[in-house]
């Protein structure tokens, strides 16, 4: 099984997979099982991949989605995408997390000139903070926090305020917050549990395998990891697999 991160790995942040990547993914599905673990909600998999890939039902049966850092799992079955499980944060948990994020913004005196949509989004099993808004275009995203320094300061304040939650840098401008233990290493364990794949038969591909990144927990599982810096690196990796 080949396991991918989504944004920064298969596509630019919240963008549709380009035509070449869609074709490569289709070829890969003809020979291997593929899972995607991301901090996004399932709707993003639909918008970025499923609405555009020309895959047969048999190929889609080889594709597995783990949104919100594997706090949910979807698979293709009998002609439709079925939710296998989803863990949902309570209203109280979301309010607690939002309060911590607001406190960090106040302490750091964060006042962005331009914000595109809501900064804080509740994705059922996860709260995601986006520094310049959930609907920000790709170009402002690229320049807002390329070295993760802004988000590192926010995480340093938020994490001690909500120690019962995981707080991790993700994507181009985001911070993902889930219940403790809900990260991409959890996704590896869920793949073992639900899909009966051994870790030695998995390869994980991601752009945030640095310490503090939301792909980093996978390293501790012992799964073979491939670090990519951009989408083109992922294309080269898939080309080598499919020949």
Structural summary, described in words:
The chain has helices at 19-29, 42-50, 57-60, 67-70, 91-108, 138-144, 149-161, 184-195, 231-242, and strands spanning 2-4, 34-37, 63-66, 72-77, 80-86, 120-122, 127-130, 165-170, 174-179, 203-206, 224-227. The chain is of the alpha/beta class. Helix 1 (19-29) runs parallel beside helix 9 and helix 5 crosses helix 7 (149-161).
Question: Would you spell out the secondary-structure blueprint of this structure?
Answer:
Elements: E1 2-4, H1 19-29, E2 34-37, H2 42-50, H3 57-60, E3 63-66, H4 67-70, E4 72-77, E5 80-86, H5 91-108, E6 120-122, E7 127-130, H6 138-144, H7 149-161, E8 165-170, E9 174-179, H8 184-195, E10 203-206, E11 224-227, H9 231-242
Parallel strand pairs: 1-2, 1-10, 2-3, 10-11
Antiparallel strand pairs: 3-4, 4-5, 6-7, 7-9, 8-9
Helix pairs in contact: 1-9, 5-7
Query: Main sheet, how many strands, which sense, barrel?
Result: 7 strands, mixed
**Class from helix and strand fractions:** alpha/beta
Average the pLDDT over all residues and give the rounded result.
94
Order of helices and strands: EHEHHEHEEHEEHHEEHEEH
Number of helices: 9
How widely separated are the two ends? 17 Å
Overall 3D form:
globular
Low-confidence stretches: none
Number of DSSP E strands: 11
Strand content: 15-25%
Strand order of the largest sheet: 5-4-3-2-1-10-11
Radius of gyration: 17 Å
User: Helicity range of the residues?
Assistant: 25-40%
């Amino acid at each position: 099984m080949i396991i991918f991160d989504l944004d920064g790995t298969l596509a630019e942040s919240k963008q549709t997979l380009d035509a070449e990547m869609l074709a490569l993914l289709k070829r890969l599905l003809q020979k291997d099982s593929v899972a995607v673990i991301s901090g996004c909600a399932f709707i993003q998999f639909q918008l970025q991949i499923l609405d555009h890939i020309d895959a047969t039902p048999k190929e889609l049966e080889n594709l597995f989605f783990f949104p919100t850092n594997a706090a949910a799992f979807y698979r293709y079955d009998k002609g439709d995408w079925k939710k296998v499980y989803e863990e949902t944060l309570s209203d109280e948990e979301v309010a607690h997390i939002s309060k911590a994020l607001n406190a960090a913004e106040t302490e750091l005196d964060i006042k962005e000139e331009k914000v595109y949509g809501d900064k804080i989004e509740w994705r059922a099993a996860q709260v995601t903070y986006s520094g310049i808004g959930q609907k920000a275009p790709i170009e402002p995203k690229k320049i807002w926090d390329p070295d993760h320094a802004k988000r590192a300061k926010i995480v340093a304040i938020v994490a001690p305020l909500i120690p019962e939650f995981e707080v991790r840098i993700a994507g181009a401008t985001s911070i993902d917050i889930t219940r403790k233990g809900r990260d991409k290493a959890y996704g590896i364990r869920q793949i073992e549990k639900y899909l009966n794949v051994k870790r030695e038969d998995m390869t994980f591909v991601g752009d945030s395998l640095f310490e503090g990144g939301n792909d980093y927990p996978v390293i501790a599982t012992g799964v073979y990891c491939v670090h990519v810096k951009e989408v083109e690196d992922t294309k080269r990796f898939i080309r080598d697999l499919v020949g």
